[in-house]
Amino acid sequence: MRHSSPGDRRSIFTKAAALMRARNDEFIAVGMAETGATAPWLGFKVETAAQFFEEATACLTFLTGETFPVNKPGTYAIGCREPVGVLVGMATWNASVILAARAVAVPIACGNTMVLNSSEGCPRLHHMVAQVLVDADLPDGVINLVSRAREDASDVVSALIEHPSVRRINFTGSTHVGVIAETEARDGSRNLTRQSERVRPRRLGLWQRRRAGDADRAPD
Q1: C-alpha to C-alpha distance for 129 and 107, rounded to whole angstroms
Q2: Looking at residue 27, what is its pLDDT?
Q3: What CATH number has the domain bearing residue 180?
Q4: Which one of 65, 133, 196, 215 is separated from 88 by 20 to 30 angstroms, measured CA to CA?
């Protein structure tokens, strides 16, 4: 995605939004079976996720750089924004479709690769969100899904955060797993955004250590 054009990315997310709405009934059926949510609540989540995909396209032409004057007359330096590489998104079950879409939409629109760690409470719903993007012609390897059992949460979260290709983490979920993610991110000099029960969304660890690697490669 790093080298794709804004028009290409806009086409993908526009198609993804249409697919979300077209698969509304399937999302509702799966969501009721997995989470016990009501049909109107699930329908609201599907529509909101579709709007997240549409909103992601709005940022594409605002990813601007800056120019700076330098000592040589008539010469300017140019600063450009670039994708950071591989990001990990962790979404919970209670607003399953919304949180999964929110975790991946803007990072991918900005040219990054996403690894979505699905909730054990709604693995099919999170898989369906990822599948929508794949079916919308997102290139291979740009979105990746990791599913795990509850008892494996600590090990999987640690492995994702500690992977040398991972540059940013976006966590929404339980306080227990959130504390693990926060500790691992701080120890590994990662940038983490955390939202948990009774914890306001906050940015943790504003570390800027750069790593070499291809932005279009996800962890093995």
Answers
A1: 15
A2: 97
A3: 3.40.605.10
A4: 65
